[in-house]
Backbone:
């Protein structure tokens, strides 16, 4: 019974992985268009990734604080 239920859940919610992947790809496109960065988590913690491929640790700075990294 548990095996059948597990299979049913994978089918029922299988679209979630694809949706999450597409959302991340869209975030990268928006970051490039708006000349900003995206923030995501890795095994080492939060990072910010710029459209030029640079990745830096995210230290929790908020809006309105200056950023030492410029994207060109």
Residues:
């Amino acid at each position: 019974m548990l095996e059948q239920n597990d299979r049913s859940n994978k089918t029922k919610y299988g679209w979630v992985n694809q949706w999450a992947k597409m959302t991340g790809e869209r975030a990268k496109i928006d970051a490039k268009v708006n000349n900003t960065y995206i923030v995501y988590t890795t095994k080492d913690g939060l990072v910010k990734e710029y459209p030029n491929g640079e990745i830096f640790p995210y230290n929790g700075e908020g809006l309105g604080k200056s950023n030492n990294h410029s994207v060109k």
In short: Residues 36-61 form one domain. The chain is about 40% helix and 20% strand. Helices lie at 2-12, 15-33. The first helix runs from residue 2 to 12.
